[in-house]
Write a structure and sequence with these properties.
Structural class: alpha/beta
Radius of gyration: 28 Å
Distance between the termini: 119 Å
Largest sheet: 7 strands, parallel
Shape: globular
Number of helices: 20
Helix content: 40-55%
Length: 513
């Protein structure tokens, strides 16, 4: 009896030791949709007994992005202004799209420059740095948003372990063996079955990115952490305890991964809740079903002729429409418009037939989770890449909101709603996703908790400990090239020597004759 009590006491002590509460500070990408899935992961960490803070810039602090009351908010960036709007305006992202232009290198570079400018303001904000220090975090969770990589100087400066979370998983940056022949990259509108020209283009781009990285500053460590030995942002990122990636092999293409990379799907998804209020009333009276329309959390400035085209098409559908838009509905019985919609809950309702979307990360995962075919109208960023893989996987169709006619819009929505081909594909994928990834936010929280307990060194590849030139075998290639060059030079010298001897003998022989 006493032995049993002693064992029970030891077990309780061991359990409490392993579930010790830690302080975690999360830094999402400075785009509102990123805060949604960070909040889900944060709440899952709180459920495991940890204290969670999320850094929220002042311009987003009043948007009610963090809906969990137990998550603590660390505000910063009072001088940033509306950073999102400023970046979109400077890079002319919407203007270029409505003018019919494709994504250009200039647009990407301008966006990178603008984001680096804002991150520099954040990193030089001593009040923000002191506030993070005063929390005394045991771990930082940082979003690997492509344009915000300079922020990784923060854990280096403060000597705090960190975890990388995000949907950008750069194979070279994380030292994953790869081939440009089968690894499409954002924001390219290509899939993993590439033509020769696509493989050539991607290879050239990969080489160019090895030579020049527009997303980080070479002097960022010198400026922000002058007291520390010089290193690069790429080398700092490699020190992450673990890489948690908002991707999977079901929605995305199969890719090679290292043990310290965990694919979790999309953390924005969850089991849909029951609809309430006006949304419940509208959906339940929709006899033939519902189309959910949303172009994300950003207020995209649609031209009036695009709005009129969509309104006219929606009115003619046999289905009712719930549309997240700043538009007054001209037909309240068929078209419900609202500045906010419970998107995941609507997609999870049995009457929802189609999701019309710009195909952002959160929305496509919610559609996959709830097995709703997607009509993709990409506008900027990763949406073109996302839309292409939706088409390739058979989960939906892709259109151009600028060019599609009213009649084509009606026909395409009906095709997705009543032709079961896409529905069958996404239903099968949804079952597989739920079986493999369960609840992604809890999966992310599990691995974050795991590395806080045990560390992540045992999952680290030796390739993550070596310089990039060694990982790419540039030293080996240079040695082989030098040896081959030496052999060629020796062969040429021997050939010349032999030629001269033969030529000399012939000349002497001719003179004697």
């Amino acid at each position: 009896m006493y032995v049993l009590k002693l064992l029970t006491l030891c077990f309780c002590v061991l359990y409490l030791t392993h579930t010790e509460s830690k302080k975690i500070v999360m830094f999402p990408g400075l785009i509102r949709s990123y805060f949604l899935y960070h909040a889900n992961i944060g709440q899952a960490l709180i459920d495991l007994g940890h204290e969670v803070w999320i850094c929220v810039p002042e311009f987003l602090s009043g948007k009610n992005l963090i809906k969990y009351k137990d998550i603590k908010i660390l505000k910063f960036g009072e001088t940033l202004g509306n950073m999102e709007a400023q970046v979109f305006k400077s890079a002319k992202i919407y203007d270029n799209f409505w003018d019919g232009n494709e994504i250009s290198i200039n647009e990407l570079l301008t966006t990178a420059v603008e984001f680096k400018k804002f991150i520099n303001l954040v990193l030089t904000d001593q009040t923000f740095i002191d506030n993070v220090k005063n929390i005394g975090p045991d771990l930082l969770v940082i979003d690997e948003f492509l344009y915000l990589r300079n922020i990784f100087v923060l854990p280096y400066k403060l000597d705090i372990p960190f975890v990388v979370v995000g949907c950008f998983h750069e194979l070279i940056l994380h030292r994953v063996p790869f081939s440009p022949a089968v690894e499409p990259k954002l924001p390219e509108k290509i899939n993993n079955r590439m033509s020769f020209m696509q493989r050539l283009s991607l290879t050239i781009r990969t080489i160019a990115e090895l030579i020049y990285d527009p997303f980080t500053d070479n002097d960022i460590v010198t400026r922000i952490a002058p007291e520390k030995p010089y290193t690069t942002i790429s080398d700092i990122i490699l020190k992450a305890e673990i890489f948690i990636v908002e991707l999977d092999h079901i929605l995305d293409y199969p890719r090679p991964m290292l043990p310290n990379t965990k694919l979790i799907g999309g953390s924005s998804v969850s089991e849909p809740k029951h609809l309430i209020g006006e949304f419940k009333e509208f959906v339940e009276k929709s006899t033939n079903g519902v189309v959910v329309v949303s172009f994300g959390g950003n207020d995209i400035p649609f031209p009036s002729h695009i709005i009129n085209k969509m309104v006219s098409a929606f009115k003619q559908l046999d289905l009712n429409v719930v549309w997240r838009a700043n538009v007054t509905s001209p037909a309240l019985d068929k078209l419900m418009t609202s500045l906010w919609i419970p998107q995941n809950d609507l997609l999870g309702h049995p009457k929802t037939k189609v999701f019309v979307s710009h195909c952002g990360k959160n929305g496509q995962y919610e559609a996959l989770y709830n097995a709703v075919p997607i009509l993709c109208f990409p506008i900027y960023g990763d949406q073109f890449y996302n839309s292409e893989r939706i088409r390739v996987k058979g989960f939906g169709l892709v259109g151009d909101i600028r060019k599609i006619s009213e009649e084509e819009l009606i026909t395409t929505i009906k095709e997705l709603a009543f032709d079961n081909k896409c529905k069958r594909h996404i239903e099968k994928a949804s079952i597989l996703f739920k079986e493999l990834y369960k609840v992604p936010s809890k999966e992310a929280a599990y691995w974050i908790d795991h590395v806080m307990k045990y560390g992540g060194d045992y999952m680290r590849s030796s390739g993550q400990e070596m310089p990039l030139y060694q990982f790419l075998l540039l030293d080996v290639i240079a040695f082989i090239a030098a040896v081959l060059s030496g052999v060629v030079v020796i062969f040429i010298l021997i050939a010349r020597l032999c030629y001269r001897r033969v030529f000399t003998k012939r000349t002497v022989k001719k003179k004697k004759e």
